[in-house]
UniProtKB/TrEMBL annotation:
Pfam families: FeS_assembly_P, Zn_ribbon_PaaD
PaaD zinc beta ribbon domain segment(s): 160-201
Ranges for region Disordered: 19-47
Domain of life assignment: Bacteria
Protein known as: Phenylacetate-CoA oxygenase subunit PaaJ
Residue spans of biased composition, Low complexity class: 19-28
UniProt domain MIP18 family-like: residue ranges: 51-111
Length: 203
């Protein structure tokens, strides 16, 4: 009589590897995991924050002490179907530095992991110095530029605009030239400390 012998189950690949390598099998590197796509629906908020943070790092070419976010030039950031659209408003129509800003914004957002970036320029509403952040005003003063004070005098004499010296904080200042190092600034001098300085004109 012929007796049938049951065939032993075929070992799995992991069992075969362990039989060959013995104690070294546990040290074998794990297979690489596929990178997670960071643009699913549940990541939209995180991606938007990342895109805006990247755009906010771009500095104004004429005022490198300020980011375009502190200056108020950066107006909006949105993501539609994976395309990042950054909206900016120039400090004045025809500003020659806008091409530089647009180029730097594209580079910064692409470096943050976004392949397609568009920069949109809008002139409405027109930019105003009111859009400069409080932190931006402090940085201007630390850089030696008097921040815009508005059209209302801040000194005891109500006959005109009094600009505070960023060096000694005195209000005893005078305008030397209505145009300073750039079109948006005026050149002032302080009678108290004798130092000249730029004033960021309010408008």
């Amino acid at each position: 009589m012929v007796t049938s012998t049951a065939r032993a189950p075929r070992p799995t690949r992991a069992e075969a590897l362990e039989a060959v390598l013995g104690p070294w099998a546990a040290r074998a590197p794990a297979p690489p995991q596929q990178e997670r796509n960071e643009t699913p629906q549940d990541q939209t908020g995180t991606a938007l924050e990342r895109a805006r943070a990247a755009a906010s790092t771009v500095c104004d070419p004429e005022l490198p002490v300020l980011s375009i976010a502190d200056l108020g030039v950066l107006r909006a950031v949105r993501i539609d179907d994976g395309v990042v659209t950054v909206t900016v408003t120039p400090t004045y129509s025809g500003c020659p530095m806008m091409q530089v800003i647009e180029r730097d914004v594209r580079a910064a957002v692409r470096a943050a992991g976004f392949a397609e970036v568009r920069v949109r320029t809008t002139l409405t509403p027109a930019w105003t110095t009111d859009w400069i952040s409080d932190d931006g005003r402090r940085r201007l003063e630390q850089f030696g530029i008097a921040p815009p004070t508005g059209t209302r005098p801040v000194g005891p004499i109500q006959g005109g605009l009094h600009v505070r010296c960023p060096h000694c904080r005195s209000l005893n200042t005078r305008e030397i030239s209505h145009f300073g190092s750039t079109a948006c600034k005026a050149l002032y001098a302080c009678r108290a400390c004798g130092e000249p300085f730029d004033y960021f004109k309010a408008h």
